[in-house]
Amino acid sequence: MKFGIEIGSQSMQDIVRISVAAEESGFQSVWFADHVPAFQWRDPFIAMTAIGMSTQSIRIGCGVVNPYSRHVAMTGVAFASMAELIGERLVLGIGAGGTLPLRPLQIEMWNKPVKALRESVQVLRDLFNGESIDFEGEIVTLKGTKLFGKYNIPIYVGTRGPALSKLAGEVADGIILNPPLDALPEYLEKVKEGMKQSHRRKIEVIEFLPVGISEEGKYDTVKPTVALLIPTTPPWALELINAQEPAAQIAEMLKVDRAKAAEMVPDSLVTSFAIAGNIRSCVAQIEKIQENVDELVALAPKSTEDALRLVSVFEEHIIPSF
To answer: How many other C-beta atoms are found inside a 10 Å radius of the C-beta of residue 134?
Structure first.
């Protein structure tokens, strides 16, 4: 089992500080979401470059860009430019986007996401192979475009749905998944279908999860993040864990009071959406998924000091256990 950490709403200085600490503590990767122009989120490519210039070997991933707010050719140029500076330790995660990056720009939500991502992956592969591209798809179009070199940059698909899980298995180097963990078998079955279709044996499976570890084993630190995740979970996945009613109630409360919404998260649902509890129970939760997950990426708390404490706990207790 490998371990990573996702950051992004801290200051640029603290983003670098956390990343350096993560590398020194044994994390294999650091990830940065493309949520701009959402409040508090920094530009992912500038942040990834700063991280790369301040670290030696840790893998640096974007989880994830989307093909609507950024043209994939512009994304390709950005990643090739970063690779020139920091080497080929980048991962390009791409997904259908969400309310944070798309709603402020008044962009149509999830316009033909499977087609959009299929076209995007094809264009990015051709760009990184150094080919000159004329491409006219339903979502992605470009003409006479070529990068300034060839680059080995893996492409991962981020998703919470079966259709894009299948697409990831068919065309991507990896898949980035979010909870609930109860839906993991369904996602992986779809990944296998896609792999079978393209005659491949393996792609990397990465699970992004909130992580809250305390001596008391309390769930309080992860509940604010879990409160955001539950209402955005696909309906079929909510049915798996009988969470339709609390999801609707939490979604309504989020509109008026996020703190109260977090308080409404039942303890019984926390470990479907997070790794949480005392050290021993968290190790057991990770052991339960390690057969199917190649890398666990911890969603860092917003507070820099809390994020650094989480890194320290992983260094001392979690990483040595695996």
So the answer is: 9
- Residue by residue, what is the 3-state secondary structure of 158-188? EECCHHHHHHHHHHCCEEEECCCHHHHHHHH
* Amino acid, res. 321: S
Q: For residue range 212-256, what is the model confidence (pLDDT) as tens digits? A: 998 899 999 999 999 999 988 999 999 999 999 999 999 999 999
Q: Start-end ranges of CATH 3.20.20.30 in the chain?
A: 2-218+274-321
Distance CA 91, CA 283 (A): 27
Sequence length of the chain is: 322
The beta strands (E) that lie in 179-292 are given as: 204-213, 275-277
> What backbone torsions phi and psi does residue 52 show, to the nearest 5 degrees?
-65, -35
Q: Which two tokens stand for residue 17?
A: 């500080």
Radius of gyration of the chain (CA): 19
Write down the pTM of the prediction: 0.95
Question: Does domain 2-218+274-321 correspond to CATH entry 3.20.20.30?
Answer: yes
Residues 6+ positions from 200 with CB-CB distance below 8 Å: 169
